[in-house]
Design brief:
mainly alpha
Length: about 60
């Protein structure tokens, strides 16, 4: 398990990548839940999925090289 104090020692590149991957993963998990559960198939949930995915892309693009 990675704690915040350990995370802070990562360089900026690895921090951006970790957050981008976390947002992408969250978007994917919610999308899969939407596919499998009709009660979860709503516009508000879809909007959240889109925002998580968009933020993941933004973090990937801002990632310092």
């Amino acid at each position: 398990m990675l704690t915040l104090s350990e995370f802070n020692y990562l360089d900026a590149h690895d921090q951006f990548f970790a957050y981008a991957e976390a947002y992408r993963s969250a978007s994917e998990q919610l999308c899969r839940r939407m596919e499998s559960d009709d009660t979860f198939y709503t516009w508000p949930n879809a909007a959240v999925i889109l925002m998580l995915a968009a933020h993941a892309v933004e973090l990937f693009l801002k990632e310092p090289y």
